[in-house]
Amino acid sequence: MRNNFLNGLPIGVANTLPGISGGTIALILGIYDDLVQAIKKMDWRYLLPVGSGIAVGIISTSFLTSYLFATYPNEVLSFLLGLIAISTLILVKKEQVYNRTSFIWLILGLLVSYIMANIEIGIRWKSVQFPLYFLGGFISTGAMILPGVSGATSLVILGIYDEVIHAVTVFDLHILVPFGLGVILGFGIFASFISYLLTKQRTRTMGLIVGLILGSLPALWPKWSFYGVLLFILGGLAAYFLRARSKTENK
């Protein structure tokens, strides 16, 4: 239970960062399949400690991540780029996404990720706040579950990222209640769908996931500096050691 809680912490932190997916971190940790299955089956013995870790990660770092992005954007992006780039190499090796079919789905994932990173909607219909935040929770949950698609980025696209992050820091129920309801519905729908794909079409699905992750990398590209290169290396090492830790725990 303690390990599940600790695994949830970095997933929660990732969900506050535009450009990085909680699902990607779950893949790095080696718990992605187990997490999706637990959500589908509503396995509370697994979900409660992981969910608690995610909640603590989100609540404890919402202000910090906003501050770091505003103050040290290039350093943060460098670290995240190293983390995601190395974790993707690890994933490609593990899943052996090399055949023609998976490559086609990889290209599709690249296109979807590119569109997600470049569209700008910025909905700000103040008269429909409840359905807007509900929609944000629903869409961001699918993004959180699907590696390579950032839940935080989906909120940026909808134009409600700042409001949701602020609501978490001040516990504003006017925003958190509809957002939370959207999250609950999203978990139920997306987890079942992705579980089915991983079971019946794993090679194609993993090809799509790798494409989504690779397509998210340009959004993390920093302005390089000495410290940026150093943090890129540290991010890569973090991905390696997170994966090594998960293998040790699973033995």
Q: Name the poorly predicted regions.
A: none
Give, in order, the helices and strands. Answer: HHHHHHHHHHHH
Q: Termini separation (Å)?
A: 16 Å
Would you count the extended β strands for me?
Answer: 0
Q: State the major sheet.
A: none
**What's the overall geometry?**
globular
Strand-pairing-aware structural class:
mainly alpha
For the record, the count of structural domains works out to 1
Number of helices in the DSSP assignment:
12
What value does the average pLDDT take?
77
Which range best describes the helical content: under 10%, 10-25%, 25-40%, 40-55%, 55-70% or over 70%? over 70%
Cα Rg: 17 Å
Fraction of residues in β-strands: under 5%
Topology:
Blueprint: H1 2-14, H2 22-29, H3 32-41, H4 44-71, H5 73-95, H6 100-118, H7 129-145, H8 151-158, H9 161-170, H10 173-200, H11 202-216, H12 226-250
Task: Give an overview in words.
The model has no long low-confidence stretch (mean pLDDT 77). With 251 residues, the chain is mainly α. The chain is globular, with a radius of gyration of 17 Å. The protein has one domain (2-250). The chain contains 12 helices and no strands. The longest helix has 28 residues, at 44-71. It has helices spanning 2-14, 22-29, 32-41, 44-71, 73-95, 100-118, 129-145, 151-158, 161-170, 173-200, 202-216, 226-250.
